[in-house]
């Protein structure tokens, strides 16, 4: 656990992300603020980072969060040191990347029956992170109108339309599910990084 260890003298961490990923950067800042160790951090957008790149020291510790072009460039040189349930982090020298891939798109497939998602929820709890189960509510909201529409037209236009509507319902559900689960994945990822990866990264 990072909070039980120490850094000396005071270290400064730069967190870089796109505007859309700012909530995740703020979450990491919140975790860092809970520790009494000698660590401070500041958040910069990728635009500000790029415009000041020439002035940055090679000794500056930087964490890149998200899937922006800037992060993807950094990822080309950095191998995963952690990869679970679509969540990744790794670092090389003073540069670290944290991101979530699109693995959760398969967690809503009928053949999976939500098993991987529920495994993820259990896994998150081992790090003290509890997420609400969003799957039942999403399926309920998306499937009912699609099912009703399919039943209304199936008799007149046949099974093809019904299958098409079912596919559309699955697609809409996957989109809604993916957005909610991504936020949950980032919350877990940031917690794991804070607990297990931050100190060794800052000491590197």
For this structure, the CATH topology of the largest domain is: Rossmann fold
Structural Rg? 21 Å
Proportion of residues in helical segments: 40-55%
Low-confidence parts: 1-9, 145-168
Average the pLDDT over all residues and give the rounded result. Answer: 82
Structural class: alpha/beta
Task: Quickly count the domains.
Answer: 2
Outline the biggest β-sheet.
6 strands, mixed
The fraction of residues in strands falls at 15-25%
CATH class of the largest domain: Alpha Beta
CATH architecture of the largest domain: 3-Layer(aba) Sandwich
The largest beta-sheet arranges its strands as: 2-1-3-6-5-4
Count of extended strands: 6
How are helices and strands ordered from N to C? EHEHEHEEEHHH
Count of runs of 4 or more consecutive helical residues: 6
Distance between the ends: 17 Å
What's the overall geometry? globular
Describe this structure in a few short sentences.
This protein has 204 residues and is α/β, with parallel strands linked by helices.
Structural notes for this entry:
A hairpin with a 2-residue loop joins strand 4 and strand 5 (87-92). Strands 2-1-3-6-5-4 form a six-stranded mixed β-sheet, sandwiched between helices. Helix 5 (135-157) packs antiparallel against helix 6. The two termini are 17 Å apart. It has six helices and six strands, in the order βαβαβαβββααα. It is of the alpha/beta class. Mean pLDDT is 82; it is low at 1-9 and 145-168. It folds into two domains: 2-102 and 192-203, Rossmann fold (3-Layer(aba) Sandwich), CATH 3.40.50; 106-181, no CATH class.
